[in-house]
């Protein structure tokens, strides 16, 4: 039975490590400046996944914690539930602080990759990947982004092997009720 416990522990360590890796053929942004990246972002597009399914008006807010980690507050509106959803987490750099590869956690000690793979404008637009190519987000500082910038991001994502034809473009129309905020 001892070997089974050891095998489970080893598998868990390997699996958790895999969740903070960079997908093959993907490079994080270099010369990344966290202070410029902090602030409010609107989700322009995403690949579908269970934890955001059905949400519109999705935004992310990033701020610096006293310990140097990043406070993450994601919000989105669920029409099906007629309610706002809020997720609070924390992010830390995986390696050097000038490389856009962070790990983010919304569930205690369990982290997953948050990889900034493209920036445009003066940190006005960003494209972010997870630990594999089934996670992709396109973000903007405003509720819309210029079509030419979007097309550049889509072309880059397609060249890296992301299934861009499966992207969802959530609505960013007027907000119903009060958006929740972090406590």
TrEMBL record:
<comment type="function">
    <text>Involved in the storage or transport of lipids necessary for membrane maintenance under stressful conditions. Displays a binding preference for lysophospholipids.</text>
</comment>
<comment type="similarity">
    <text>Belongs to the calycin superfamily. Lipocalin family.</text>
</comment>
<keyword id="KW-0472">Membrane</keyword>
<dbReference type="InterPro" id="IPR000566">
    <property type="entry name" value="Lipocln_cytosolic_FA-bd_dom"/>
</dbReference>
<dbReference type="InterPro" id="IPR047202">
    <property type="entry name" value="Lipocalin_Blc-like_dom"/>
</dbReference>
<keyword id="KW-0449">Lipoprotein</keyword>
<keyword id="KW-0998">Cell outer membrane</keyword>
<protein>
    <recommendedName>
        <fullName>Outer membrane lipoprotein Blc</fullName>
    </recommendedName>
</protein>
<keyword id="KW-0446">Lipid-binding</keyword>
<feature type="domain" description="Lipocalin/cytosolic fatty-acid binding">
    <location>
        <begin position="33"/>
        <end position="172"/>
    </location>
</feature>
<comment type="subunit">
    <text>Homodimer.</text>
</comment>
<dbReference type="InterPro" id="IPR022271">
    <property type="entry name" value="Lipocalin_ApoD"/>
</dbReference>
<dbReference type="InterPro" id="IPR012674">
    <property type="entry name" value="Calycin"/>
</dbReference>
<dbReference type="InterPro" id="IPR022272">
    <property type="entry name" value="Lipocalin_CS"/>
</dbReference>
<dbReference type="InterPro" id="IPR002446">
    <property type="entry name" value="Lipocalin_bac"/>
</dbReference>
<dbReference type="Pfam" id="PF08212">
    <property type="entry name" value="Lipocalin_2"/>
</dbReference>
